[in-house]
Amino acid sequence: MEGLIETRSLREQVYEYLKGEIQAGRLVPGSFINLNEISTHLGVSKTPLRDAIIQMECEGFVSILPRRGVLLNRLTLEEIKDVLEIVGALESATIRSVFDKITSSHIKKMEKLNREMRLCIQKKSFESFDPQYYALNIAFHDVFLELSDNAAMKHLIGTMKRRLYDFPRLAYMKNWEWSNCDEHELFISYIRNGEKETAAMFWQGTHWGFEAQEIYIREFYAQQDKHIQQN
Question: CB of 142 within 8 A of CB of 106?
């Protein structure tokens, strides 16, 4: 567990390790997690591992099955639809509540982040998982989310996004991510023009709208499922 921040608890370190293994595709959805193997590999007792697994169960990543073990859940199309609906509703509500707090400096920051995202997409290696692009995309949303004083809402949004994003991140679809950046630009233009309701409705209905993103979603997750079945 080299490189982990020592001030974090063992539970947090084990949790981050497990999430990293999921993102890298070394823990495969639909399979059971070998807790003994992980405990030995990390050199930790079962207690922090158990605590991390309980947290992951609360977030929907795993199911603890009596006498069978810990199953890494698949992300179903219905669950994706539900998560998009919830996150879209919460983020659009946040946009409405913080709109008057958004300044020109926040707009410039979003523009800069979106430009950097486009640069990532232009890289030849972008089809593989790009942690820089992932971080930039999260940071873009955080520009306005961090303006909210509603800690419970921000925590819920973060939890739901982790369920959506933290599966085997083996590839990106360039056309989907170009569209993502285009949506960011349009969103910024609505903010710059003071169109609060238009910005919030666009964010919920298009950026997080299942129907608006369905073609990309079905293609992307079909690729992920194909990879899982092959390994």
Answer: no
CA distance 83 to 181: 21
pLDDT value, residue 170 = 56
Query: CB–CB of 226/105 below 8 Å?
Result: no
User: Per residue in 143-152, is it b (16+ CB within 10 Å) or e — as a string?
Assistant: bbbebbeeee
Q: What is the pLDDT of residues 66-90, one digit of tens each?
A: 989 999 998 888 999 999 999 999 9
Task: Look at the domain 77-230 and name its fold.
Answer: Four Helix Bundle (Hemerythrin (Met), subunit A) (1.20.120)
**pLDDT (tens digit per residue) in 6-57:** 557 889 999 989 988 887 778 888 899 999 999 999 999 989 999 999 999 9
Cα(108)–Cα(129) distance, rounded to whole angstroms? 27
The listed CATH number (1.25.40.10, 1.10.10.10, 3.30.70.120, 2.60.40.10) that belongs to domain 10-72: 1.10.10.10
For position 74, what pLDDT does the model report? 86
Cα–Cα distance between 108 and 110 in angstroms, integer?
5
Whether the pLDDT of residue 132 is over 50: the answer is: yes
